[in-house]
Every structure is written in C-alpha cells, then in structure tokens.
What does this fold into?
Amino acid sequence: MADIIEKVASGWPSSALDELMPWNWTAEPVPVSPFLLTGRHDRDHRPTADQPR
It folds into this structure.
C-alpha cells in the first residue's frame, strides 16, 4: 500500500491509475526452502557420529 501512495505522490500519471489497482498486482516470488524441493526435512535427518548435532 505504501508503494502505491508513494507512486501517486511522486506524480504517477492519472491516465495510468488503473495499473495501481489490486487486480493488476502480481505476487512477489516467495523463496522456496531446499527441504521442500528435496522432500527431506530436519526430522528425517539423523546425524552420524562424524556430524555435529
């Protein structure tokens, strides 16, 4: 919301206000955990004798 107010205050053209409407927003990419990609979770990992806990 703050970025939209900033754009309007900075002189966003009134002819392009439709671009600021929520139906034109795109989601920002969300970082994906490597555990989700591999299907491996901490609870599945059992440290071996040479690995610290």
In short: The CA atoms of residues 6 and 51 lie 50 Å apart. The chain has two helices and no strands. The radius of gyration is 22 Å.
